[in-house]
Structure formats: C-alpha cells, structure tokens
Amino acid sequence: MNATRRHWFRFAGLGALAPMALWRSQATAQSTSAGPTAVPSAPAGNRPYTPVRTLNGWTLPHRMVNGVKEFHLVAEEIEHEFAPGCRAKCWGYNGTTPGPTIEAVEGDRIRIFVTNCLPEHTSVHWHGLLLPSGMDGVGGLSQPHIQPGETYVYEFTLRQHGTHMYHPHADEMVQMAVGMMGMFIIHPKSAEAHPVDRDYALLLHNWALHPGTYRPDPSVMVDFDLWTMNSKVFPAIEPLVARSGERVRVRIGNLSMWNHPIHMHGVQYQVTGSDGGRWPQRLWRPETTEIVGVGQARDIEFIAVPGDWAFHCHMSHHTMNAMGHEVPNTLGVDQSGVEAEIRRLLPGYMAMGEGGMAEHQEHTDSGHMRGPPNTLPMMMGKGPFGNLEMGGMFTVVKTRDDQAPGDYSDSGWFANPPGTVAHRVSSDPNFGSPTRRGPPAGPPAELEAKPADHAGMKHG
Ligand SMILES: [Cu+2]
C-alpha cells in the first residue's frame, strides 16, 4: 500500500460517509450492494421483538442484500468523553466506544465487513456465537490479522439467541483497554412467552486513565481510575426509564478486568438469561444483586415500580472516580494543628477526611479545590435532596405512572407521595433512648492514627 492510500485509510473512518466510499472501493464478489446502510425499519408484520436500547449508545444500521443482513464496522481511533471534564483518545468502532450494538434475529444470515483504520492490525471475535471456526476472529488462529487499511468480511448464520459481545482477538490487552468492544444482541426467532416492553443493553468496562493524561494506560491490571457503563460514568450515564408495570430487561455484558455485582434497588429482579439465551422460566431466580463476571453476560428482568431506584455495581470503589483511590487514610485524624505546617511543604494542601470523605464533593463542586486536569472527582452526582455521592458504575431506574410507552426521555426526579420520604425528627444527638451494647466511645487512645504518619491527601 502506498503512503497516500495508507494516509487516506487512516482518516477514512472520521466522516460518516467515508466508510461507504471505502466499501465501494473494496467491493468483492461477496459484497454486492453499494448503497449506504440505513437505520433498520421496525420488524415488519408480527414484530418479533422489542429493539434494544443501548444507553448513551446506538445500534448499527444494516441493509439487506439478497436475503443477507450486511453490517460494516470500522475499527478506528476516536475521541471519547467519559463525562464533561474528562476526554481521552480511545479506540472503538464507527466513531464510538463501545462500538454500536449489532442487533439481529436467530436464523438471520449476516455478513459483517470490518475495516481497520487503526495503526496496528486487529480482528473481531464474536464472543459467545456459534459459528464456523474460521469466522471466530482469533487473529493467527482462525484467520490472518486484518492489517491497517484492510477490510475483511465475516459471514455466518445466527443459530442461537441471547446477549453477546464482540471485541478484538489481536493485541487484546491494548485494544480492549482502550475501548474496543460492543454488544451483539440476537433475538429469538419467534415471539417470547413473556415479551419485554423495554430492553436495555449495558457493557461494563474499566479504564486506567491516569489524572492529567489523555490516553488510557493498557499496562494496568488491577488499579483502574474510571468504571463505566457503556464507557460513561455517573452522572453522564443515562437513566433507565420505564412506565409503571412494564416488563423491563437489562442485558449486562462485562469486558472489563473485574467482576461486577450489579445491584438494583426497589425490586427483586429475575435473572433470566445470558449468552446462553433466555433461560427456561424454571431456571429464573429472584435476586437483588447478580455478579456479572469478566467475559459473562447476564439478563435481568423486572416489573417496573414507581420511583427513582439506584442501579449500580456494589463494589464501592466502582461507584467512585479516579480521585477516590489510593488516598492516605485520614479518618479520625485531627489535622487542625498541622494543616498550615503541611501547606508550607505542599502548597494547596487541604486537610480533609477526618470525619469521612463526603466533604470531598463539596470542595470539588465549589471549585475552591481544583483537581488535576482531565480526570473526574471521586463523586459528582446531584440528586433532589443534595449531593448524590456517586460516580462510576451508577445510574438510576426512573419509573413513572405517566411515562408513555416507548418514551425514553428523562422524567426528572420522582415526586414522592406525601408521607413516604424519610425525614428529620430531631437534631439532638442524645435523642431518644436507643438500646446499645458497649460504650459509644472511639478506639483506645494508643490505637488512634497519628497525623505525623500521613503525608496528606493526594488528589489523583
Ligand atoms: Cu464493579
């Protein structure tokens, strides 16, 4: 490939129409259509499924060519925003991380073109799909790697249904760490016994985007800065909205480096499926927290009840952003005598954390404590009653009696019926006479942490 052509390929993915031009130039005997892909029309006639809604994301358009559903993925570098104030150079597909959700129906014959606009080779593995060995996308094992500038085509028939994923099987440590992944949803051929009214898709990931840097660090194995649903952190993650009484399914995939116990408030959801498809109903089980292991997919379903219900990973650091990790423990440390002293050594130092870390959000929100550039405070949500001290893998299920079917717009905060909100009855710490066991004092003096042991709060 000559330099000019390579240069052109490098930028081909940046415009929405460029991949289609590329498609024409790469036409083979197998690719028969030259027209652009379009947003799929609703399934005709006896509509077999409710289309999936990928929070903060989108579904890849396709076109029909002689009975084959054709898709086109472009692997490319992109600029991604995790939340306002934090952007990074990532890799993804067709302009986004995660890449667009691929959605099809059991029995479909599908053809997927993959154009590589990355600076190194790649491949795409269709995670969990039953297909011919040579279509499995493991570079070097099942196919040659897709070199920069090349387009490969995958073609197979979907012989299953369920919640699946796609990702590279080439230089995985780097390519997945910087965002290359997407969901692949296959609906059953015939209508489901318990049809869902809303069908959400979430892909969990973690990022080592060190504060002040602009590229996720692929070398990190355990200690990540950002925890995301569809590559967004709360409060930038869209809410899951529903109308009271609707059956809602949430499909959760995990291509991060940690297992995530996904917890939902307000209901006992049923765990109803995985990449093994929707399970027979006798295998469904009620839970309020379900671990979605690395490489796994889980479907949960519930009947929506009115309210604003937290929906989050229960690993408490996974609902925090970068500035919550690896700070010295100042809990219980009286820093009043040493703050000025430390400030002489560390300009801008602020004593914090003696009574817990909740004050951190007040400091960052008010702007009088500035964090490092291009990262996010550990907690940054706002709720109707004050700071909602969460970041990371957290969002809200918003169910309303008057949410119109098919309306996904954010309905604002829940209007609690009168008398149904916890409220203050006293400001006296000696209020009432609660039963206690043991004295309410702190630990023995000799176990109190000593301020001299601490270098001060690290922000980042
Ligand atoms: Cu988690």
Describe the structure.
8% of the residues lie in helices and 30% in strands. It is mainly β and 460 residues long. Strands 1, 11, 12, 14, 16, 17, 18 and 20 form an eight-stranded mixed sheet that branches. A hairpin with a 2-residue loop joins β3 (68-83) and β4. The relative contact order is 0.12. Residues 227, 258, 260, 313, 315, 318, 393 line the site of copper (II) ion.
Key traits:
460 residues; Immunoglobulin-like; eight-stranded mixed beta sheet; five-stranded mixed beta sheet; 24 strands; 30% strand; globular; binds copper (II) ion
- Give the biggest beta sheet: 8 strands, mixed
Structural class: mainly beta
**Radius of gyration over all CA atoms, rounded:** 25 Å
* CATH T-level fold name of one domain: Immunoglobulin-like
Strand tally is 24
Shape verdict: globular
CATH architecture of one domain: Sandwich
Arithmetic mean of pLDDT: 84
In short:
This protein has 460 residues and is mainly β.
Summarize the helices and strands and which ones pair or pack:
Layout: H1 3-12, H2 18-25, E1 53-54, E2 63-65, E3 68-83, E4 86-93, E5 102-105, E6 109-116, E7 125-127, E8 151-157, E9 162-167, H3 172-177, E10 182-187, E11 198-207, E12 226-229, E13 240-243, E14 247-254, E15 260-264, E16 269-274, E17 277-278, E18 285-287, E19 289-292, E20 297-303, E21 307-313, H4 339-345, H5 359-366, E22 381-383, E23 386-388, E24 394-400
Parallel strand pairs: 1-11, 3-6, 5-10, 11-14, 13-24
Antiparallel strand pairs: 2-3, 3-4, 6-8, 7-9, 9-10, 11-12, 14-20, 15-19, 15-21, 16-17, 16-18, 16-20, 21-24, 22-23
